[in-house]
Design brief:
198 residues; alpha+beta; GTP Cyclohydrolase I, domain 2; 5-stranded mixed β-sheet; two-stranded antiparallel sheet
Length: 198
C-alpha cells in the first residue's frame, strides 16, 4: 500500500506585498543618501523588492517516500547541495553547501527531496545554526530514519563584506541525530563521506 505524498509549503501568511516592499526599499535607499533619479537606479527599489521576495519564497514540493523493501541499512548521503539564505541579523546573503544524510528505517526518500528540504528551510531570514537543526529535525520527524546527519558549510557576506571583513572565511555547522550521534563509527563514516574531519 502506497503512502500519499506530503505536500510541503512554506509556513507563512499571505504572499509578499511587492508594492509596499518597493516603497519601503525606495525609502531605505533615499534615507541612506542614494539618489534614485538616474536611469540606472530608478527601478532599483522594485528590483530589490522582487529579489527579496524570491529569496524568501521556496517552491512547494511533494515529499515522496518509498518502502524500503530491500531493507537497505547503510548511509544515504547527498553532498554539495547548494545553500543560499539571508542572515536574519543584517539581511545579507550567505551561500555554501549542505551535506545531508540518513540511515533508512522503513522508508526511503526520493533523493531530490533532500535538496528541496534544504531550500525549504533556507528561504527565510535565517541563522546557519538553526537552519542546520531545522533540516535534521524535520527529516527525523517526517521519515523516522535510524539516524540523520546535516552539515552546512557557508560563507556569510555579513562577515566578509562588512564589519571584520574576514574574506575567505567559512562557517561549518552540524546536527547529528539517532545512530549518527550515538555510534562513533557511524558518526565517523558520515563525516568522512562529507569530507569533514569529525
Amino acid at each position: 500500500m502506497s503512502t500519499p505524498a506530503l505536500r510541503v509549503v512554506h509556513e507563512t501568511g499571505p504572499g509578499p506585498d511587492l508594492a509596499a516592499a518597493e516603497a519601503a526599499a525606495a525609502d531605505l535607499l533615499t534615507a541612506l543618501g542614494i539618489s534614485l533619479d538616474s536611469e540606472s537606479l530608478h527601478g532599483t527599489p522594485g528590483r530589490m523588492a522582487r529579489a527579496y521576495a524570491e529569496l524568501f519564497t521556496p517552491r512547494p514540493f511533494d515529499l515522496t517516500t518509498f518502502p524500503n523493501d530491500e531493507g537497505y541499512d547503510e548511509l544515504v548521503l547527498a553532498r554539495g547541495i547548494p545553500v543560499r539564505s539571508v542572515c536574519e541579523h543584517h539581511l545579507l546573503p550567505f551561500v555554501g553547501v549542505a551535506h545531508v544524510g540518513y540511515l533508512p528505517g522503513e522508508r526511503i526518500l526520493g533523493l531530490s527531496k533532500l535538496a528541496r528540504i534544504v531550500e525549504h528551510f533556507a528561504c527565510r531570514p535565517q541563522v546557519q545554526e538553526r537552519l542546520t537543526k531545522q533540516i535534521a529535525d524535520w527529516l527525523e520527524e517526517q521519515l523516522e530514519p535510524r539516524g540523520v546527519g546535516v552539515v552546512i558549510e557557508a560563507e556569510h557576506s555579513c562577515m566578509t563584506l562588512r564589519g571584520v571583513q574576514a574574506v575567505g572565511s567559512s562557517t561549518v555547522t552540524s546536527t547529528l541525530l539517532g545512530t549518527l550521534r550515538e555510534d562513533a563509527r557511524s558518526r565517523q563514516e558520515f563525516f568522512a563521506l562529507t569530507g569533514i574531519n569529525g
